[in-house]
Description:
The complex is a heterodimer.
Chain A: E1 3-12, E2 15-25, E3 30-34, H1 41-49, E4 56-61, E5 67-70, H2 84-88, H3 96-105, H4 121-134, E6 139-143, H5 151-168, E7 171-176, E8 181-183, E9 188-192, E10 196-200, H6 209-215, E11 223-225, E12 228-229, E13 248-249, E14 258-259
Parallel strand pairs in A: 3-7, 3-9, 5-6, 6-7, 10-13, 12-14
Antiparallel strand pairs in A: 1-2, 1-4, 8-11, 9-10
Helix pairs in contact in A: 3-4
Chain B: H1 5-29, H2 33-53, H3 57-76, H4 82-101, H5 105-116, H6 124-143, H7 145-153, H8 155-160, H9 165-183, H10 192-206, H11 210-235, H12 239-260
Helix pairs in contact in B: 1-6, 1-9, 1-10, 1-11, 2-3, 2-4, 2-9, 2-10, 3-4, 3-9, 6-9, 7-9, 10-11, 10-12, 11-12
Amino acid sequence: MLIRAENLSVRHGEAVVLAGVDFTLAPGEIVTVVGPNGSGKSTLIRALIGLEPAATGTVTRAPGLRIGYVPQKLHIDAGLPMSVRRFLSLPKRVSDAQAEAALARVGVPGLGPRPLARLSGGQFQRVLLARALLGAPQVLILDEPTQGLDQPGTAAFYRLIDEVRAETGAAVLMVSHDLHVVMAASDRVVCLNGHVCCEGTPKVVSAAPEYRALFGLGTGGAFALYRHVHDHDHEGDEGHGHDPAAPHRAHPHGTHAHVHGPECRHDA
Amino acid sequence: MLDDFLIRAALAGVGLTLATGPLGSFVIWRRMAYFGDATAHAAILGVALAYGFGVSVYLGTLTVALAMALTVASLSGRGHAMDTVLGVLAHSALAFGLVAASFFSGLRVDLSAFLFGDILAVSRADLAVIWGGAGLVAAVLIWRWQGLLTATVNEELAQASGLNPRAERLVLTVSLALTVAVAIKIVGALLIAALLIVPAAAARQLARGPETMALGATAIGALAVLGGLQASLTWDTPAGPSIVAVAAAIFALSLVLRRRA
């Protein structure tokens, strides 16, 4: 166990942003958290890192856990001159060779002397990832890492994450606002909407024609379609009548679509 | 050598820039300019209270500046509109300071020295306090440089790396109060923020990395001190404002140089 949350609730003032979340991240697994805007995805990530205090429940991190964090946004103040090379040396100084190796690993070799402010969105994401990797993380935490990337860019980035996981064995915890597209390599997908709606394995949908059309074959199957349209009832499902206190496992079988009501608040 | 008041003034000013260079850079990076102003204005209240209680002016300004800095820092975390809070606190502290000062007849005469500084009146004891205080600030900033810089770039990133961004913020807050306390004699409460910001802003135009900017800010600040003293000597202008004026001229020059580069 790397990180565990038990019965975690987070409040922002009066508003309850997360309620009763149980979550465990095991070494080496890839977990994707999906959910609509305002569903508490980023809050969950922040609470797991320790940036948000828990209103109730507990968050436990393995002692000395090395987290490689890739934030959703990183605004560098115009008053702060910062090259890619210098940024990679935060918070620990690394050698030029290490820095260049990390940049090469994420596919942007030779970018070191460039000011951070002059990177494209895709380059910036890769530099953030390179910096996270330099800390030899046991877990990579990425908050909507592909926001602002086009679809081929997103595909390439997910493929890169998968390669990095295979090489380093680091666990990956990722947030996506896209309900439909998650990494095929995800061991688990957690659907969040203030609470954990459901979680389970994503179906591999390299066969899904609409996504093949969008991403082509060049993505090497890095994408899966996780059908998650919220308009079914649970009564016909195999034994998981829906109780928000005991979120069900999403259907790992076949091409069965997982469908909920228009909003995933079963307690409403 | 220290018998010459000009030498003492130059040493005091240059010593102060050891702290204002790197600290001023952080003030710019973290957008704390107004924060610096508030702390500096509060120092006048410190001067008045120091006279009232018969303690050292340095102790008085340090205490009040620290109280102000910590108050502002804690309020900033609670969703108050920051520029309003700072505007209220900074100018109230200045006003209360001026009112309190009026009760001490001796201080009324001296007050302009604390508003505008009196670098030419720096004593050997002042010199020791200034170098001690500025040296301490510089040493702390160098010691914690990597953590401070990481937390400045992004607090979440810092936290995820196992740093404590709140502690880093506190280090800067206390450093700012200490710098204000030792700087009040040199440039005065009204211009301390200028000495923090203007040299660092000039260095920003020419620097490619945070370290070169901080060192450049110290170098430009020292140049401004020497140039300002020279100007004060030549044209009989007030020393503190002259120093800031020279720094402003260097900033203007840095804009031109950057355009050429």
